[in-house]
Amino acid sequence: MVLSMEGIPGLLYLLLLSATGQVSSYGAPWRPTWPAYRLPVVLPQSTLNLAKPDFEAEAKLEVSSSCGPQCHKGTPLPTYEEVKQYLSYETLYANGSRTETQVGIYVLSGNGGGAQHQDAEPSGKSRRKRQIYGYDSRFSIFGKDFLLNYPFSTSVKLSTGCTGTLVAEKHVLTAAHCIHDGKTYVKGTQKLRVGFLKPKFKDGGRGTNESNPAMPEKMKFQWIRVKRTHVPKGWIKGNANDIGMDYDYALLELKKPHKRKFMKIGVSPPAKQLPGGRIHFSGYDNDRPGNLVYRFCDVKDETYDLLYQQCDAQPGASGSGVYVRMWKRQQQKWERKIIGIFSGHQWVDMNGTPQDFNVAVRITPLKYAQICYWIKGNYLDCREG
């Protein structure tokens, strides 16, 4: 049974806002364990047909903002109606048609869940030379034995220039700005494709380099067309109304299954619960064309919606799935999950001292409920984050 949050008194709503983020952890302290979250439900209420977009926006491979952690933390909590608006979404189909879906937010009566959210407020300042901090700590991944194996095989390239991550048999998670600039869709989105690295066989061979086995095997992209995309209205409204990067995520549905192992999404634990306080992600940085680039780094700060870190990255890595590996108590095994989406760069005034960060959008309980419903189409399959 689900209960609507509409009409909940203000004080009780604030209690629910503070409740969803609470977790219960299991296992020994030395074994980082996936927390058990109380999850809300996000369900469609109505769908409206929209005019076809013009697809005239220029693709931007990164997003910049000068609103840092303190700016984000100081933003007032949104109302229930505002949260519903932010989580409403646009769907773009391959034939160019477009719809807008309004959602309702519900709590499961037997699960004690609630909705929680916090907004941010960016501006458009940018800095041209950025995203590498001191010594470049990125690793280019070579050889099919690595590229074609999990977890690196879950990273894919978008035809608009960004990175995405396989999160289901036919679904790819990426950054919203890779397909939409906040006002309209970018050029090429109507014929959006997703590229999978595969061995580049020559002369009918098996792809091995017999003359020099130490040389990495050449790879090529095999492309699959996208059937439809989902973008939250919080991103579309956000760019127009300076709300922030909180909703810089999108889900792509492919026209056919990709037949690779994918990585599940999960609710982002607090940074202090991450193994070593670190995150990991792989992407197609545009300064290393054709290479998949892996990196990991410490989380420096966090808000409810964003993770601030200084992982070395360049444009093209945007949309990469940020993941960690933790112990899954129920299955008694280690499991990687995507807990965020790499978004872009922030140049922040920290107590009068300029400081720059790379930013990832966290998968919060509400975002998990929304993305999971986009994938599954049934909220009952989205009870575990």
UniProtKB/TrEMBL annotation:
Cellular localisation: Secreted
Keywords (A to Z) from UniProt: Disulfide bond, Glycoprotein, Hydrolase, Protease, Secreted, Serine protease, Signal
Coiled coil: none
Keyword NAD: no
Domain Peptidase S1, chain residue ranges per copy: 150-291
Gene Ontology BP annotations: proteolysis
Family: Belongs to the peptidase S1 family.
Protein name per UniProt: Serine protease 23
